[in-house]
Amino acid sequence: MIEAALPASGLVFWPVGTGDSTTIVLDEKTVVQVDLRDMKQADEEGAVVAAVIDRLEETLPVTADGDPYLALFVLTHADLDHCCGFGDLLDSPILIGEIWATPRLWRELAEEGAMCDDARRFQEEVERRVQATLKAVEDGMEPASGNRVRIIGYDEDRDQHSYAQLPDSYFTFPGEAISMIDGVDVSGRFEAFVHAPFKNDCAGDRNDTSLALQVQLRDPDGIVGRALLLGDLAYPTIKQIFDFSEANGRADRVAWDVLLSPHHCSKKVMYGPDENGVEERKQDVLDQLDRHAGPAAYVVASSRPFRDADKSGDNPPHLLARDAYEEITALPIVCTGSHPTVEAPHPVVFALDRDCGFALVDVEELQESKVASLSTDRAGVWRLLTALGNTAVTVVGTAPSTIPQQTRGADGVREAVRQARGDEAAPAEAIGFGTE
Known about the structure:
12 helices, globular, 22% strand, single chain
């Protein structure tokens, strides 16, 4: 069974084969899920894919009624490798406070056979929330948590669908930022800037209508981490995003410390036909990605392990894309299917970091920290958090105003644990995400 602790504030990319399941942790009360791939084989002995719903149910914060609470679910687009298991998520005890969806869902309803069962369950749930929101508005109220919905993007046939009746406050369009989650203002901790889908793509291929976001996380000390989540977009739309952002003084909106490689590390991001139909490398978009990368930027491939060699017609991940990204970052691309090993993949976890926005957390350190006892020494608690990149344990209380600079990595963790306990004693109690 694949296990993981959620970071105190950061990102988790789950190993789910070639598909997307990204968890964003704002704090001990607020967790966001972007896309989902939860396959039945995850429950088999020796599985190398994560049972994401089970892991969320175990680690999410809980409501006053004791239900696991997911503040927000976001679907970039309705492909099975981005929504697999959504019906199971709905049937689980997890309360989903709010859902973000694109108008493409309603368009696809008219296309017979276009939607898989989980995509249809998602669309039905979004429609239920639209109706619940309209009823709340009619009654002069806000929709309750569990009924909230936001529609992101345009569609030319909007007037034909029920969501068009929603008040303007329930819509967001490219070029706008969102800092409200489930009715709560989280602007000091989180912001999602919407890059796509563009209006001109509303009737295009499903991948081309993917919801594309820049997500920013911020902690009380002003540390900011930026991630680009671009769904399954390909070169033309990604180039348009960077061109528009640069031309309109929004370069900060394409800055990134972590890039979830679009379409599971597909070469279609940076390779395409020239005027004669011959495939060529599109260096312009690679230069833009390079220009806006942070000082220690990482690229994540949410995919099966890379092959030793690719042949024409192979599905992602593509070695050409991997090699191009590694030229930008000077760091190996992090593949969810092989991190840290192919035989025993673990979730890829990033935590907010003062020096580089997001820092990749060592799996062994993350697991070690889950059993660290720091209940009597708050300074020791925060030393451990610092050594881990502020990741794996959540502490109720306030950080000291001054936190001594600590060595990072395994040596830093061991020293922080030693200082917190005062010796090499075994932990007295375990603390972790959601502990009170």
